[in-house]
Amino acid sequence: MQDKEMKQVLQKAEVLIEALPYIQKFNRKIIVVKYGGSAMSNEMLQKNVIKDVTLLKLVGFKPIIVHGGGKEISRWTAKVGKESTFVGGLRVTDDETMEIAEMVLAKVNKSLVTMVQELGVKAVGVSGKDGGLLTAEKKYAEGQDIGYVGEVTEVNPKLLFDLLEKDFLPIVAPIGLGTDFQSYNINADDAACAIAKAVNAEKLAFLTDIEGLYRDINDKTSFISRLTASQAEGLLQEGLIGGGMLPKLENCISAIRDGVKRVHILDGRIAHCLLLEIFTNQGIGTAIITDEEAEFL
Q1: Which of 12, 148, 217, 282 supports an S-S bond with 98, CB 3.0-4.6 Å?
Q2: What are the b/e assignments for 62-90, b being 16+ CB within 10 Å?
Q3: In whole angstroms, how far apart are CA 189 and each of 129, 152, 202, 255?
Q4: 239-269 pLDDT, tens per residue?
Q5: Distance CA 127, CA 100 (A)
Q6: Alpha carbon of 20 to those of 273, 277, 280, 293: distances in Å?
Q7: Which helix (H) or strand (E) holds 127?
Q8: pTM of the model as a whole
Q9: Cβ atoms of residues 202 and 29 within 8 Å
C-alpha cells in the first residue's frame, strides 16, 4: 500500500475512534430528528439525511423522525389553484387545504419509510392521529383564527415506545386529532418538541436552513456553537433573535426545561450534518445544553 493510501486509511480509522465515545455514551438513547426545509426538497440531501439517521439506528441509537412538508404542500395547493396564505409563519388552513396537507404529508411519510427500508432498517410511518399520539386544539396566530392549525395539548408516546421496542424506526407526520376528532395541521417543530419531551429524548435535532445561532445574523464571527438554556433565554430577552428562529429557539428552551438533555440546531443543507454534529468533538451547529451540564464542561 502506498503512503498516500495508507494515510487515507488511517484518517478513516481516526474518524471512527473519535466517534467511539459518542456511540458508547448514547447507545440505546432516544434522539428525535425534526426533518424539513431545503434538506427535504433536495433529493441528494434527503438521501444523506436518511443515511445519517439509519446509521444512528445501526450503531445503537433509537431515532425518531418527525418530518414537515410545507414546500410540498404549497406546491400541491398551487396545483389546484389555491394561493398559500401565512399569518405569523403559520399556514392558513381551511377544509380543502387541510385535506391537501394530510394527503401530501402521508405521501412524504411513506417516501421516507421507503428510503429507510432500502438501507436495510425497518421503519414504520405514522400520523399523529395514530394511536392517539398527538392530541391538538385550535391554534391562533396573532389573535387570528387561521383554520385547522393545531397546538399540541397531549402526547401519548406508547405507540412510539412499542415501535422502538420492536426495533422499528418511527417516522411521524405532524397531523393531530382534536377531542372533537377534527384533524389539525401541526407545525413540525412544535410536534418534534412535544414528542421529544414525552419520550424523554436524550437529544432533539432541528435540521434548518441556517448554520445555527448568531448573536448578530449579519456578523458571521458571532456564531454560537454552544450555550445553556439560561443563556438562550437571555438572547430572547435582549431581542437578539427574530424571524423564524424565534419560535424555534423557544421550542429548544422548552424542550431542555422539560427534560431533553441536549438540543441541536443544524444546517440541513450540509451533507451528513447529523453525523458531523453528534460524532465529532467540534461539531458544526449550535448545541443548547442544560445549565447543569455546563458546570461539568
Answers
A1: 148
A2: bbbbbbbbbebbbebbeeeeeebeebeeb
A3: 17, 11, 17, 11
A4: 777 666 777 888 888 899 988 988 999 888 8
A5: 15
A6: 18, 14, 10, 21
A7: strand 123-127
A8: 0.90
A9: yes
